[in-house]
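Bench log, entry 3. Co-assembly request; chain sequences pasted below exactly as received.
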Amino acid sequence: MSFIPHTKEDIATMLAEIGISDIEALYDEIPDEFKIGTLEGIPSAANEMEVVREITALAAKDKFGLNFIGAGAYEHFIPSVVWELTTRGEFYTAYTPYQAEASQGTLQLIYEYQSMMSNLMAHDISNASLYDGASSLAEAILMAIRVNRTKDSKKIIMPRNLHPSYKAVAESITTKQGVELIDIEFNPADGLINTQDLDSHSDATALVIQNPNFFGSLENVDGLTDWAHSQNIIVIAVVNPIAMALLKPPGIWGERGADIACGEGQPLGVPLSSGGPYYGFMTTRGEFSRQLPGRIVGKTLDSNGNEGFVLTLQAREQHIRRSKATSNICTNQGLMVTASTMYMSLYGEQGLVDVAKSCHSKLNEFITAIKNLKGIEVLFDSERFHEVAICMPKSSKKIIEYMESHGISPGLDLSLYFPELENTVLACVTEVKTTEDIQAYVSLLEEALEVIE
Amino acid sequence: MSEEIILYTKDHEWIKKTGDQSYMVGITEHAQDALGELVFVDFPAINAEFSKGDAFIVVESVKAASDVYSPISGTVIEINDALNSNPSMVNSDPQGDGWLCIIQSENADMSGLMNEAEYKSLLETLDH
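Structure output for the full assembly:
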């Protein structure tokens, strides 16, 4: 991106041209009560040298041991060709270009991405991506409220076994708009949504179902979807795209399929890189196309009959509908989507199935190896994918500290998010873990349990 | 039988009485011309209630999506389903086959609405 500085003279000329005295006057339409003079906690500007120094120090905190933390971000093998192609100059931008139709290659790539994502989710249409998985859920909630005209409520059923960060982001974005997020418990025995609690919320607008849920357990998605539809409740599926290669995709859950699918696109070719940038995806039924937030690329013919690609259904978007747009925060993550498109093209349908199967068998190998350790309890009796919750006989905090200091991150401390899950660690195993890695984990955990009092 | 009376809003909707308590609503020739070819009409749910002046329908053309405001308070009892497959009927016949919906209202408040002559003079002020 070019660096285009404005001198004071440039700014004065531009202000004079449109007939206002200062830049603040451009924001007159924003009521004063919404203007904040200073932001607490935001430090004052730093120069380039200071920033480089600080960021370098932060980067030095990265550890390169064996990582068994998943919890929403997943380590997968990414063939070198994925980022070799993604970082070519022709693709190297974070956004859909402003003069979009001049960039036919980028638009074709997004069109291919949308096609593959729609197939993976068994839905009719996909957008060009969103900012990340958590904000994609917030957008899906707002979309569900627009779509569901049979309900006056803005109540959304949010099971507690949903990713806690997704819930926090959804709260930030939606509750100020009058949306009410309703907690539903999970069963302590299997970690699945407690269906008995659902019936008292039949007036809700939408039900969020994460599958696999945050604990890795597989929900009864057909039963939940059919119950929701029988109550005119929109079903929002939060799913892991790799898992969808093996499990039933949202578009065919129950009799009619989930209405909206969303989630984190990172597993498809985007490295963990300390938490971002990632991207969110969203797919839905064709009939809801006008309520789908974000950009959509379509294929068409030009006046000479040649195939071409265009941004379509733009009348929903913020540059036309302003405050009534389907979204004003739906950043498209173009570069990450480029990597995902390369990744999906390279693996193909069978390749993704193989990755998912490999994840599943490695997780089972891990569980078999770990469940015989003295005092260890594997929680939640259910089918699983990617994740397993392990209750430790000693302090999970101390075990994590000990194992991390010896080069293995054993998992996420669940008690930080779920107080009732004391000393419980959520461990993730994907196809990149070898039998030796798993043995190393088991040996180190055994050692930790002996050393720690 | 008296000649049917059509009233207009400043936002370029028209309304006419079609039954005891029912009123047909659409957009005017001027509005369809300004919007260009319509590609989609986003209707409210049947039985949805609105107050006078509420945005209750969205008409989408190839270049814009605009709100249509309810000329009176009432309940939407019928929508023009034919527009789902052929929204450009609003362009070809905005005050006929291209009507949008029928609103039921017990005591329709017609204040602020214009008759044809008044609406025409409003349009003349817009032309310049």
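The longest strand of chain A covers residues 206-211. The mean pLDDT of chain A is 93.
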